[in-house]
């Protein structure tokens, strides 16, 4: 007999891995590594994507393609005002609501509004171009509040950061790529798939056994 | 059969429509007011400005206190110190008149605007012959719109009008002779001379008048007396002066004092919406667009249009749209009037597609967009629309129209290279050039020796305009592996953006993961338009 609830949870997780509960479902990303490990982005959950700025920009491009593929709509809250739409196909841009913010706290408020709205499938909060000092000033309660808001929706929230700062992220994805100028001559889709990612799910919830 | 909808004390009722706090209290109305001018609102003097204004209408509470129409304000206040004296508002009268016409139009297309607060309807084509039920329905509907109405029905327009005047609140005249018999002569508004003669003869009611021979009466008092006899006998009929009311859903209110906070305006707007939605529902319509006009103390008006993303008849949704606007609103002058106009639309019937995820609540999304615009500025929210030019950073954010987004194309597979993260504004830089290539850069972000560079990518445009531009761009790789785009234009060098900026304080280790296999396409290298010259 298992001695504690956590032990029982672990035991059930090992015996019935398919019973793992993803409360809001999954949003397939099209990124092979992410989809293989998690099936995609967890809906109703907060995901943190951290790494170099190039990896964040490529992830955003992957999400634009996902929106066309899944016929859904997304929002980008850009705290660094760095999003470059020139070069992206208009069909993908039409599915992305862009919110340029002048500062990090404005971006946090904008994200809050979008999460409360609950209409979109995906919200991306891009904090990768924000100075680390400013990021550290964001209260950690913000991320917990976001998670609580998400749990009432089927939205997925991805926060792009230069380093792991989001406390309470349900999934943390580290991304890196050794890009050189030679990458500028390659298909963007190939660069997206070749990103090296590691996934750290924080916790899983087991379906209650009847 | 004809019907008449009669709004007693019409002018006073229109002023009291949104003044619940004055119900049951003595109120008198002075005959001076305001009017809508050319679709907007502007204050001007009343029709009888310049002479001492008397009370035009009073309510029952004022009448009980001894106040009578025609008294001046001091006279009325002497009799009833608690009397509230209000001014006429032509703006509100027009709105109430539109409500009346609309209600009449729901009974029959043949309606006549008989007078202010009086509307005559030709009911002969009506299938429903239960005139009393029709009348009660009209009275109840108008009561919901804060208007007390009386309904009368009779075989001719004049009889219907007399019935409406005596209705409590509905009266259908089945036997005209019995109804008219006890009415006083003055109910028919006879000419003063004729009325005086009849009074001298001892004729006080219509039964006494109709007992006189009609021919003899005409011989002695002329054709006017003959027409009066016909009306008294219920035999006079006339064609209606038909009108076609414009379907306009407007409510307006003018404050008696300057308002400096949003609460009174929002309070009124909520009531406006309740009334307008009732009217829209009666017309089987929903709100497609709203126009809010606020009259300011300096005579100007603040006007704003709101497109309802998904036309709706939900008052809460519409109110939230207005409330969101007030959240970030600051006016330079006080508010003296508010007007809300709704453009009706047909309700949308949307069939969701099986695999598509449209917006669940477009109105809520529109409201969120409004809040975002208030937070970050209208120019910073929207869907990116790339402009038809090669000038760098040429795009604009437009309002999203997610409901019109069609299928995507596969063109995205043709994009090449890493996406740029643009610095806005571009960072000024000093660049050292050796053999026509940048080799060293000094700037806020990129600083140091350049390991490798691709370029130049030259572009120019608008040379036929005064704002012509020329750029030369370079993609550069720094010693630390960061990738940037440099640009030279008329003002000098700058760092336009980065492709990949290494974060110095943190580095992820992937020792256990094999590096991805090289999959560069040879054909791509030959066809890529950005392929630099060898």
Could you explain how this protein is built, in words?
The complex is a heterodimer of chains A (210) and B (534). With 210 residues, chain A is an alpha/beta fold. In chain A, 36% of the residues lie in helices and 23% in strands. In chain A, the strands form three sheets. Chain A has a seven-stranded mixed β-sheet, sandwiched between helices. Chain A has a two-stranded antiparallel ribbon with strand order 1-11. In chain A, helix 5 packs parallel to helix 7. The radius of gyration of chain A is 17 Å and the shape is globular. The C terminus of chain A is likely disordered. The longest helix of chain B has 21 residues. Chain B starts with a strand and ends in a 7-residue tail after the last helix. Chain B is built from 15 helices and 23 strands. With 534 residues, chain B is α+β, with helices and mostly antiparallel strands. At the A-B interface, helix 3, helix 4, strand 6, helix 5 and strand 9 of A face helix 14, strand 16, strand 18, strand 20 and strand 21 of B.
What oligomeric assembly is this protein in?
heterodimer
Strand content of chain B: 25-35%
| Main pleated-sheet profile of chain B | 6 strands, mixed
Helix count from the secondary structure assignment of chain B: 15
Secondary structural class of chain A: alpha/beta
Distance between the termini of chain B: 95 Å
Largest interface: A-B, 78 and 81 residues
Order of helices and strands of chain A: HEEHEEHEHEHEHHEEHEE
Total count of strands of chain A: 11
By helix and strand content of chain B, what is the structural category?
A: alpha+beta
How many distinct beta strands of chain B? 23
Computed Rg of chain A: 17 Å
Q: Based on CA inertia axes, which overall geometry of chain A fits?
A: globular
**What is the residue-mean pLDDT of chain A, rounded to a whole number?**
84
């Amino acid at each position: 007999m298992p001695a504690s609830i956590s032990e029982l949870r672990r035991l059930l997780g090992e015996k019935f891995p398919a019973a793992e509960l993803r409360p809001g479902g999954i949003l397939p990303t099209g990124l092979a590594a992410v989809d293989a490990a998690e099936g995609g982005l967890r809906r109703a959950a907060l995901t943190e994507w951290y790494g170099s700025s190039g990896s964040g920009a490529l992830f955003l491009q992957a999400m634009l393609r996902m929106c066309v593929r899944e016929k859904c709509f997304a929002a980008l809250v850009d705290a660094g005002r760095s999003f470059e739409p020139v070069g992206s196909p208009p069909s993908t841009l039409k599915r992305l609501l862009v919110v340029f913010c002048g500062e990090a706290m404005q971006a946090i408020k904008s994200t809050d509004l979008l999460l409360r709205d609950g209409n979109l499938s995906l919200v991306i909060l891009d904090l990768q171009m924000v100075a680390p000092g400013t990021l550290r000033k964001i209260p950690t309660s913000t991320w917990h509040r976001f998670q609580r808001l998400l749990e009432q929706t089927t939205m997925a929230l991805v926060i792009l950061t230069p380093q792991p700062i989001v406390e309470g992220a349900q999934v943390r994805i580290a991304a890196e790529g050794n890009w050189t100028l030679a990458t500028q001559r390659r298909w963007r889709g190939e660069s997206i798939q070749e990103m090296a990612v590691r996934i750290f799910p924080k916790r899983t919830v087991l379906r209650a056994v009847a | 059969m004809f019907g008449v909808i009669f709004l007693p004390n019409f002018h006073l009722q229109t002023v009291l429509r949104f003044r619940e706090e004055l119900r049951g209290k003595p109120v008198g109305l002075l005959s001076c007011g305001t009017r809508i001018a050319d679709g907007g609102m502007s204050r001007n003097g009343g029709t009888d400005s310049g002479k001492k204004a008397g009370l035009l209408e009073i309510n029952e509470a004022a009448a009980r206190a001894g106040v009578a129409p025609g008294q001046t304000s001091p006279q009325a206040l002497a009799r009833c110190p608690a009397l509230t004296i209000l001014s006429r508002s032509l703006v509100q009268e027009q709105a109430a008149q539109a409500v009346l016409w609309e209600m009449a139009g729901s009974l029959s297309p043949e309606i006549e605007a008989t007078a202010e607060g009086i509307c005559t309807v030709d009911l002969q084509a009506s299938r429903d012959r239960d005139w009393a039920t029709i009348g009660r329905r009209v009275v109840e509907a108008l009561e919901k719109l804060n208007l007390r109405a009386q309904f009368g029905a009779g075989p001719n327009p004049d009889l219907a009008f007399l019935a409406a005047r005596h209705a409590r609140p509905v009266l259908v005249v089945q036997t005209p002779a019995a109804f008219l018999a006890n009415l006083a002569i003055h109910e028919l508004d006879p000419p003063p001379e004729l009325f005086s003669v009849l009074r001298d003869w001892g004729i006080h009611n219509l039964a006494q008048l109709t007992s006189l021979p009609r021919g003899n009466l005409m011989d002695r008092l002329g054709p006017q007396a003959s027409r009066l006899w016909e009306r008294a006998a219920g035999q006079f009929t006339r064609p209606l002066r038909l009108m076609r009311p414009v379907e306009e859903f407007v409510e307006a209110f003018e404050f008696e004092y300057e308002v400096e906070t949003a609460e009174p305006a929002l309070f009124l707007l909520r009531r406006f919406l309740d009334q307008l939605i009732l009217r829209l529902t009666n017309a089987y319509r929903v709100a497609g667009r709203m126009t809010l006009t606020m009259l300011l103390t300096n005579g100007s008006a603040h006007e704003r249009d709101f497109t309802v993303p998904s036309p709706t008849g939900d008052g809460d949704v519409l109110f939230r749209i207005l409330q969101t606007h007030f959240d970030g609103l600051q006016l330079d002058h006080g508010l003296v009037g508010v007007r809300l106009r709704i453009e009706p639309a047909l309700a949308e019937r949307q069939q969701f597609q099986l695999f598509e995820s449209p917006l669940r609540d477009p109105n809520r999304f529109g409201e969120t967009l409004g809040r975002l615009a208030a937070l970050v500025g209208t120019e910073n929210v929207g869907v990116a629309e790339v402009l038809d030019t090669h000038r760098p950073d040429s795009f604009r954010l437009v309002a999203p129209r997610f409901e019109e987004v069609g299928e995507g194309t596969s063109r995205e597979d043709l994009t090449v290279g890493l996406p740029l993260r643009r610095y806005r504004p571009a960072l000024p830089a000093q660049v050292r050039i050796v053999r026509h290539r940048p080799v060293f850069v000094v700037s806020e972000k990129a600083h140091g020796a350049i390991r490798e560079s691709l370029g130049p990518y030259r572009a120019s445009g608008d040379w036929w305009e005064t704002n012509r531009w020329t750029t030369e761009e370079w993609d550069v790789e720094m010693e630390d592996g960061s990738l940037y785009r440099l640009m030279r234009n008329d003002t000098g060098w700058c760092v336009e953006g980065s492709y990949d900026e290494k974060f110095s304080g943190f580095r992820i280790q992937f020792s256990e993961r094999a590096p991805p296999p090289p999959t560069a396409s040879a054909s791509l290298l030959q066809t890529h338009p950005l392929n630099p010259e060898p």
